[in-house]
Fold this protein.
Amino acid sequence: MDTTASYAPILEVRNLSIALPAGGDRASAVRHVSFTVGSGEIVCLVGESGSGKSVIAQGVMGLLPKTLPVTSGQILLQGEDITHAPLARLRELRATRMSMIFQEPMTALNPVMTCGDQIDEVLRQHTPMSAEQRRAKVLEIVREVLLPDPERIIASYPHQLSGGQRQRIMIAMALVLDPVLLIADEPTTALDVTTQAQILKLVLDLQKRHGTGVLFITHDFGVVAEIAHRVAVLRLGDLVEMGPRDEVLRRPEHAYTRMLMASVPTLRVDERPVDASAPVVLKVHGLDKTYDDRSWFGKRRQVHAAKDVSFEIRRGQTLGIVGESGSGKSTVARCIARLIDPSAGSVLLGGAHPGEQAAEIATLSASALRPLRRRVQIVFQDPYRSLNPRMTIAKAMIEGPVNYGLSQSAALERARGLLDLVRMDASALPRYPHQFSGGQRQRLCIARALMMEPELLIADEAVSALDVSVQAQVLKLFEEIRERLKLAMLFITHDLRVASQVCDFLAVMSRGEVVEIGPAHQVFGAPQHAYTQALFSAAPGRDFSFGA
C-alpha cells in the first residue's frame, strides 16, 4: 500500500472546534482540528476514549446534538461547506455523497424490519427507482458485500444474522448509492480476528472499486497498520500528530503517540515459568452444551455450542480460550460459572486452599450450588452493563460478601483495600458507575469480583472494548492480581494480542470443540492445527513493527 501518494481532497476539516456542555472536564470536545481525506484514501483517526474521534465523525454527518455546537471552523464536502447546512440539505447528502458505518450494527439496524427492506429504504428515499429496480439493486449490493444466499439474507431480520453478517448489511446500506465519503466508526471492534479480516478486506476492495475516501475511526492499531494511508492522532480534542502510516506508527514524534505505540501488545510470546506442582483449581472433562432451537413453525434442531471440552487450570495459572464468534468460548465460561447448566460432562472445582473440598459443580442444584458461588467469579465485557446504575460503588461491592454473612463494616474495609489494589481511590465508593470512564469501571468490576475472595476468576472479553493504553493497564493489573493472590484465571478473548500478554496456556476453540491446547508460547510459536494457523494469519498488523 502506497502511503505517500497524493489524493484529491473529498473531505476538508478546517480549524474545527466543537464545544462541550458547561461543567464538562474541558471546554471543547475538539479544538482547532484540521485534516483532509482524499479520493481513494483511507485516513485513520486514533486516540483514547474522549479524544474527540466520534464527535468529529458526527460533526461531518450533521449528527451532533444541540449540546455540542460547532464554535469555529469549516467542514467541506467536495468543496461545499456543510458546517451549518440545513437539515434538508444534510438529508440529501447522507447516503448519496457521505455515509457512515456504526460500531454496533445490532443497535444501528431496525429490529422489526428485514435487512432487505432497510437497504431498500435508502433507495426509496433517494432515487426514483421502481420497486423492481430497487430489489435488483439490493440483491446486487448484497452480493457485492459477499453475503451468502442473498435471497435469504434480504428476507432475514437482524437478529437472525451473525455479527459479521450484520456489519456487512451496514456496509451495503452505506455503499448502495456510491457515496464519495465513507465514515467507519469502530466497525470491527467487537468482531473476532477472522471476521475482522474479512470486513477489512471487504472495505478495502469496495473502497478501491468505488474510489471512495474513508475516514476510519479505531483504537486497534493492528487495523491501522493493515489499512491506513495516513494516521491522525487525537488527544483530549487536540490533533497532536498526523502523517503517513509508517511515519506515525514506526517513528512517532509526539510523546502521546509514543505512549500509544508502546501500549500495543505484540504477538510474540516468551516461555512463562509454570509451577506444575500447584494444586488444580478447575478440572473440566467432557463438557457438553446442547441447545434445542425451535422455530416459530415448530421445526426443531440441536445446536452443539460445546462438545467434549476438557482442560485444567492450576493455582496461579492463566488459561486463555480463543476462537471466532460462535466457537463456544463464552458458553464454556458460563457453564463453569453455572450461569447456564451443562448438558453433560464434569466441572470439578478443586480445593486450592487447605481444608477446602473439591466440588463437582456441573450437576449441583441451585440450593447446593449457592455456598460455592463465591469461589468462582466472572468479569464481563461491558462494565457499564455489569454495574447497577442505581447503586453506588460501595453498595455494589459489599452486596456479595454481606449476602454471605460478612458485616457491612468489614465488607467496606475489604472494599477500600481492593480499590487500592486496582489503583482506585476510596473516594469512588459513594459515587455511581456513570461518573467513571470505561477503564475505571472495569477496574471496579475486577475489585467487585475479588470481594468474594474467589479461587477462580473468569474474564470474558474483559478488555476488548478498551483503548489500547487502558487495555495495557488493565492487563497489567490482571497479571499483578494473579501473582499477588495466586488466583487461577480463565481468560476468554478474540484478540490474539491480548492472549499473548496474559496466558500461560492457550486453548483454541472452533465450532464448540477444542482443536488445539498447550503452553501459550508453543501454540503461538508453532500452531499445529489448520484452524489455529488460519486464526493467527488473520490477525491484523501481525507483521508490523510498532515504534515507541
In short: The CA atoms of residues 29 and 237 lie 5 Å apart. The two ends are 22 Å apart (CA to CA). The chain has two domains: 9-263, 280-537.
